[in-house]
Design brief:
α6 links the parallel β7 and β8. Helix content is 33%, strand content 27%. α3 crosses α4 and α5 runs parallel beside α6. The mean pLDDT is 91. It has 7 helices and 10 strands. Strands 6-7-8-3-9-10 form a 6-stranded mixed β-sheet, with helices on both faces. It folds into 2 domains: 147 residues, P-loop containing nucleotide triphosphate hydrolases (Rossmann fold), CATH 3.40.50; 65 residues, no CATH class. The chain is globular. The structure holds adenosine-5'-triphosphate. The site of adenosine-5'-triphosphate (ATP) has 12 residues, from α1. Part of the ABC transporter FtsEX involved in cellular division.
């Protein structure tokens, strides 16, 4: 469960990016966060990742109070979350297999486990045939699927995605959204920041709308 109570974030320049936001996102929910450019969506994701500290308010993720979390625990906390961004951050000199395996190697997962878990994850995202390929030989949609596989390989309870389909055409957008839905059906909480009205309308999920740092609408979903 993710709980924000009275969270505000003011940047040092005095920019109030998030203003008194209170929200609860339950385990296994699928939530879109929408709103105009500059409305505070990315700031909200960064607060959840503990990349930024709130100026006011409290954030609790799966019973952990982020404000009380010791600094040395933060990398471990972040590894509990799956993160997907628009510009993928794939390692260009590594194959598809190694890009996904990397997320496990850094936390010391043994090779014999990686040899099973990575092919399974690549099957799930439909990329088994491309396991030896390097990212620059893949289409945008395929690269995005590698990024999703990498985000999910350590079985995070929460997946945070910032414009995951921003660079994709509508066919690939559908594919990626179908994949996120499948991941959600397997129990992962999915939070997607997007500008795509088409996607939001089709998916019929909970939609949180932000405007100038405030939640102005929160509707849909099964709550
Ligand atoms: N590092 C920063 N320092 C100062 N102000 C910032 C910083 N990052 C964002 N802002 C400001 O905070 C506000 C919210 O920005 P944020 O990136 O959260 O919006 P957003 O809704 O994600 O926008 P977009 O859809 O364009 O990505 C904006 O006014 C922005 O200019």
């Amino acid at each position: 469960m993710i709980e924000l109570s009275h969270v505000s974030k003011t940047y040092s320049e005095g920019n109030r990016a998030v203003k008194d936001v209170s929200l609860t996102i339950g385990d296994g929910e699928f939530v879109f966060i929408v709103g105009r450019s500059g409305s505070g969506k990315s700031t909200l994701l960064k607060l959840l990742l503990k990349e930024l500290e709130p100026t006011k308010g409290q954030i609790i993720v799966n019973d952990m109070d982020l404000g009380k979390m010791p600094r040395r625990y933060v990398p471990k906390y972040r590894r509990k979350l799956g993160v997907v961004f628009q510009d993928f951050w794939l390692l260009k000199d590594l194959t598809v297999f190694e890009n996904v395996a990397f997320a496990q190697r850094v936390i010391g997962v043994p090779n014999r486990v990686i040899k099973e878990s990575v092919p399974e994850m690549l099957r799930m995202v439909g990329l088994s045939a491309k396991y030896k390929t390097r990212p620059d030989k893949l289409s945008g949609g395929e690269q995005q699927r590698v990024a999703i596989a990498r985000a999910l390989i350590n079985r995070p309870e929460v997946l945070l995605a910032d414009e995951p389909t921003g660079n994709l055409d509508s066919f690939n957008t559908h594919e990626i959204m179908g994949l996120l839905e499948e991941i959600n059906e397997r129990g992962t909480t999915v939070i997607v920041v997007t500008h795509s009205h088409e996607m939001v309308q089709q998916m019929k999920k909970r939609v949180i709308t932000m405007d100038r740092g405030v939640v102005v609408k929160d509707e849909g979903g099964s709550r």
